[in-house]
Amino acid sequence: MREFNWTPGIGDPTLGGWLTVVLYLVTAAVCWRLARRLGSDGPGLHSEAIVWGAIAVLFVGLGINKQLDLQSALTEIGRVLAHTQGWYEQRGTVQLLFVAAIGAICLAATLAFLLLIRRAPAITWLAALGTILVLAFVGIRAASFHHVDRFIGTTVLGLRWNWILEIGGILMVLVAGWRRK
């Protein structure tokens, strides 16, 4: 039987990791403030306010996860369950179903965002695009295919692809949140 082998700790103690966490949390605060303002400006802006609020909540969760590495705990729970319940040899099927579920959730969230902002200004669409980029990055990381992991670990102009995708998406949302009037 396999024992649970995960302890909470700092998942990415690098400068890039901490910068990403700060960007997630600052962006979440900007989005939350904007959601509250839009929600109080009138019923016509209610659906857009929901989107900005959802982005805020999502980014707080992703910022916390970035440093606590909670997905590793989830993976370890899965391994322990697979060993304990005797389906470890068939774990590939469960992993595939998990990745498909994450993909479906990200797709559903994307479609819901697009539906809710269909009448929103273009700057809100920029925030949606940034959020979609972040969700795509999360989906890629959840899939954890080795060739994809190798790709996002490579660098362009000294920057790793995972930073470009994740931080790029966060910055799009942050700029959109600041610019949305």
The separation of the N and C termini measures: 57 Å
Structural class from helices and strands? mainly alpha
* C-alpha Rg (nearest Å): 18 Å
| Average predicted confidence as pLDDT | 85
Low-confidence stretches: none
Strand order within the widest beta sheet: 1-2
Instruction: Please state roughly what percent of the residues sit in beta strands, choosing from under 5%, 5-15%, 15-25%, 25-35%, 35-45% or over 45%.
Output: under 5%
Number of domains: 1
Residues in helices, as a percent range: over 70%
Number of strands: 2
Contiguous helical run count: 7
Order of helices and strands: HHHHHHEEH
> Biggest sheet: strands, sense, closure?
2 strands, antiparallel
What does this protein look like?
It is a single chain. This protein has a two-stranded antiparallel sheet with strand order 1-2. A hairpin with a 2-residue loop joins β1 (155-156) and β2 (159-160). The chain has one domain (15-70, 89-179). It has 181 residues and is mostly helical. The chain contains 7 helices and 2 strands, in the order ααααααββα.
